[in-house]
Please model this.
Amino acid sequence: AVVVGGGLAGIACATALARQGVAVALVEQGRGLGGRVCTRKTECGAVFDHGAQYFNLPEGHALAEAAQGNLQPWSRSIGTTRVDSQGVVFTPHSDAKLDAIRVAVPAMSNLGRALCEQAALSDIMLSTRATAARYTTDGGWTIAAKQRGQDAPTHLTSRVLVSATSALSCGRLLSTITFDDEAKTEEAAQSLGFMQSQAAAVESPACWALMVAFD
Model:
């Protein structure tokens, strides 16, 4: 199987397939694993978890069990800040809410790599984008995967193709799908059209992260 997307959804999918004895190739266009669970180190040495800053994990949550020691309780203050005519007002969360908050150590971006190591996922292609896919006569897939800086793509063959990406990225991949002549049936074309329409209907609002460091 080829799983496109190395975020937590892609890693979970690849792990589930691998546990069933399926050989899995994980293709991720970013430089690291984890998707929105990401960390950035600046030139001045400051480190920011500018994607998901924490997880809200009730007791017994599957991610807490899968992480196996790579998560720890949040140890700092967290709450909401309101700016009004009286100034800046910070309201901390209650202790009960803080009890469920977990962060990855030493940084959030370490979680994706740790989950892949625990699942023994070794066929991982980073900085690689799936640029096209072709559905073949024998019911399989040929996927063009182009690594950053590479002139020509690598062609992967698989019986299963999974897109575990944002709706926007999934739509882009769906738009590249072509069919071998004998594989292009009316049913296949209708299925592809339906998936494209579903991806296009998803609205993804922008989310801004302000990274500020104080001396």
